[in-house]
Amino acid sequence: MNNALQGIRVLLADDHAVVRLGFRLLLEGAGAVVVGESADGESAVRRYAESTPDVVVMDVSMPGIGGLVALERLLVWDAKAQVLMLSAHHDDVVPVRALRLGARGYLCKRAAPEEFLRAVGQVARRQRYLDPELAPALALAQFSGSDNPVETLTEKELAVFLKLAEGRSVNDVAANFCLSPSTVGTHLYHIKQKLNVQNAAELTLVALRNGLIEA
Prior knowledge:
The chain is of the alpha/beta class. It contains 10 helices and 6 strands, in the order βαβαβαβαβαβααααα.
């Protein structure tokens, strides 16, 4: 894959510095140029505006607004942004949401280095990329409708759900998303109704069962 990505300008968004370093070394070894790094969704959107990269490589799970909301804001700012979303989890709920929101590609972090470079290259060429291991599950999810109650959550509810399932407080989530605590409380009420859960522990359990967070 030497120089396979020659001259492609990439913005990295991941809250783990070691992961960003690994990606940087892989990308630069293939001829790409890393034009910026971000550790959260808000700064990823800002850095995109400053550096206008060819590709954004962005983790789904980050502090603050998180990857999905950052993806949504990024595409509002520039509808032509080419974004490859990454996740450490093998689920089908988040990839479906990311692709519906406008991500160009989706890759699990367990993929081999050459697969990561292939994904970046395809997204840079404005081609769709989907992790081969996720493709069958995603195809099934598209055809089977919303048997999974998590699929019934709106984009905002899903973003709030993921933060609450990680153990964040309502006030923390409100601050992250620039919402009032009462608005987050309303989202939480609807989330509980849709998922048929009673408390924060059950929210976390649903997220774990769906592979949306790690134990």
